[in-house]
Specification:
- The protein has eight helices and twelve strands.
- By secondary structure, the chain is an alpha/beta fold.
- The protein folds into two domains: 13-128, 3-Layer(aba) Sandwich (Rossmann fold), CATH 3.40.50.2300; 134-243, Winged helix-like DNA-binding domain superfamily/Winged helix DNA-binding domain (Arc Repressor Mutant, subunit A, Orthogonal Bundle), CATH 1.10.10.
- Strands 2-1-3-4-5 form a five-stranded parallel sheet, sandwiched between helices.
- The radius of gyration is 19 Å and the shape is elongated.
């Protein structure tokens, strides 16, 4: 008789907010969609939960006691690429851009529609749980000493492996696939999020490019990999070689 191992339970979604009513509301809507949910009421507890349980996504308020949400984002990013949806009463563009620049994947200001929050969660998980930049799968790109193996989602610079998030992989793959052609911010948003899937402004692309350059060690004043086309968008900074399907 063949014994079948039970399928492992998916990692939980972590909801972090110091307002118990919001936590209960978000938890109820997510559990209604069959997601497993854990919660934290402050930043210190949230960091411990992330370290110990490696959630598949974090829904995070910025205004937290003890350790604020920005610090939680930074700590999460130092541990890996767990997607983060910022949920906060801070509604200014500056706070939104700061959250994105620190590594958040999306931002939903309070007050929010629970149905929209569930839709954002579903979109982020669908986007980040794919195996790398799928629209460029089975292609290997080379630009100077940078190599991108899109099939495996691996990036190396001068032989050193660089850990990129799924969004950053898609951004890099889109730029390399264009082979020097300028891509507008809207085109890049479509490449990494999908047309109309994410409610983010084109300014978010500037944040993503900044993070990508930092990880690649690319100097925007003398770019080797990602060049700025002032007023138009971004392009690969040199000729790109590729192996795989055209």
């Amino acid at each position: 008789m063949i014994a079948f191992m039970p399928r492992p339970e998916p990692a939980p979604i972590l909801v972090v907010d110091d307002d118990p009513k919001i936590v209960a509301l978000v938890r109820a809507y997510l559990e209604r969609e069959r997601y497993r949910v854990i919660t934290a009421g402050d930043g210190r507890t949230a960091i411990r939960a992330i370290e110990e349980q490696a959630p598949r996504l974090v829904v995070l308020d910025l205004m937290l006691p003890e350790v604020d949400g920005i610090a939680v984002i930074r700590r999460t990013r130092s541990m890996g690429d767990i997607p983060i949806l910022v949920l906060s009463a801070r509604g200014s563009t500056g706070d939104r851009i700061q959250g994105l620049s620190e590594g958040a994947d999306d931002y939903l200001p309070k007050p929010f529609s629970p149905a929209e929050l569930v839709a954002r969660v579903r979109t982020i998980l669908r986007r980040t749980e794919r195996d790398g930049p799928d629209q460029f799968r089975d292609v290997h790109y080379r630009l100077a000493d940078l190599d991108l193996d899109a099939a495996r989602g691996l990036v190396r610079v001068a032989g050193r492996e660089v850990a990129l998030s799924v969004l950053e992989l898609r951004l890099l793959a889109a730029l390399l696939a264009a082979d020097g052609r300028i891509l507008s911010r809207d085109q890049l948003l479509d490449a990494i999020h999908g047309p109309g899937e994410a409610d983010v402004t084109d300014r978010a692309i500037d944040v993503y490019v900044k993070r990508l350059r930092e990880k690649l060690g690319d100097n925007p004043a003398a770019p080797r990999y990602v060049a700025t086309a002032r007023g138009a968008g971004y392009r690969a900074a040199g000729p790109v070689a590729r192996d795989g399907p055209a």
